[in-house]
Amino acid sequence: MVFEGLFARKNADRAADAAANGDTKPVRPSIGLALGGGAARGFAHIGVLRTLIANGIVPDVIVGTSIGAVVGGCYAAGQLDSFEDWGRKLTSRGMLRYLDVSLSGAGLIGGKPLAHQLDAALNEARIETLPIRFAAIATEFSTGHEIWLTYGRLVDALRASYALPGIFPPVKIGGRWLVDGALVNPVPVSAARALGARIVIAVHLNADLSGRGTVISSHGSNDADEPAPNGESNGRRGIGHSAIRRIFGNRERPGIPTVMVEAFNVMQDRITRSRMAGDPPDVLIAPKVGPVGWFDFQRGAETIALGVQATEKTLPEINDTIAALTTPNAPPVDNAVK
């Protein structure tokens, strides 16, 4: 890939310059972070980043999908502090101001309040001017193309990357209508590698959802099942409050958002397993965030702490991997005749 070649030449030039100057310090391999999707579970990415940086492991490349793109983009733009502060202060009541429910558009939630929050923090930041290499992963829904957003307005790229189909409306960027990148690349290891990372540290937020994806080989109906609809119209009862209740569901019957999110979970799990089997990361960080629901944004502080715990456990493996791939600089050879 072009980006890999550019990074390789850059590292080679850096090593050659250091050797010519008599600098014998080892050259650390470039480090990439692949931050996966997972909605509210994504606050764990903050804990991961904080712990890595506190231990001197600073990424050269960040590629994120969905909430991973949001956290990674805020870090790259120098706004991780404000994003973390916002996440720690969120409450269930406070989340209501971001739920601009719309039953007439391409998503149940318009997403304007959240977009304004990001816009205020990131202002006119552009991806190509960030101090580190960054990409947000999105999906062109009409073709299924995996889109790497590597230039343009950062906030637009983040909105496209987290545009969960049916929940948020698609975002038009460069003539393409884009939705959540988790449809095609939930944990973007391949993109981080292609953008020049020699070591890829992946953060998978759904790794501890055990018991999913098995085969139930014999199943059928029983007396406890609901009767099939009889085709009669409910007239005006189908409008207003009762319709809203049916849309969002209850404990006995899942609503549209729950069905969509759980179906998305199944798809994302299968895609992640397949892609990571073919292109595994050098190190995998898997925070135990299974008990945190996709919309449990009020649990920000707890979820950040889970990211810290998972990263601290993985630090020895990360340091061993970096040490194994660190290139020593040989001092310049003196060929003068003695």
Mean model confidence by pLDDT: 83
Main beta sheet strand tally, sense and closure:
8 strands, mixed
What is the share of helical residues? Answer: 40-55%
Poorly predicted runs: 1-9, 232-240, 330-338
In percent, how much strand structure appears in the residues?
A: 5-15%
How would you explain this protein's 3D organization?
This protein has 338 residues and is of the alpha/beta class. Helix content is 40%, strand content 12%. It has eleven helices and eight strands. It has helices at residues 2-20, 44-54, 67-76, 80-89, 92-95, 112-122, 154-161, 189-194, 241-248, 256-278, 300-325, and strands at 31-35, 61-65, 133-140, 145-149, 171-173, 176-180, 199-203, 283-285. Strands 1, 2, 3, 4, 5, 6, 7 and 8 form an eight-stranded mixed sheet that branches. Helix 2 links the parallel strand 1 (31-35) and strand 2. Helix 2 crosses helix 11. The model is unreliable at 1-9, 232-240 and 330-338 (pLDDT under 50).
Which helices and strands appear, and what pairs or packs with what?
Elements (H helix, E strand, L loop, with lengths): L1 H19 L10 E5 L8 H11 L6 E5 L1 H10 L3 H10 L2 H4 L16 H11 L10 E8 L4 E5 L4 H8 L9 E3 L2 E5 L8 H6 L4 E5 L37 H8 L7 H23 L4 E3 L14 H26 L13
Parallel strand pairs: 1-2, 1-7, 2-3, 7-8
Antiparallel strand pairs: 3-4, 3-6, 5-6
Helix pairs in contact: 2-11, 3-7
Which structural traits does this protein have?
globular; 338 residues; alpha/beta; 8 strands
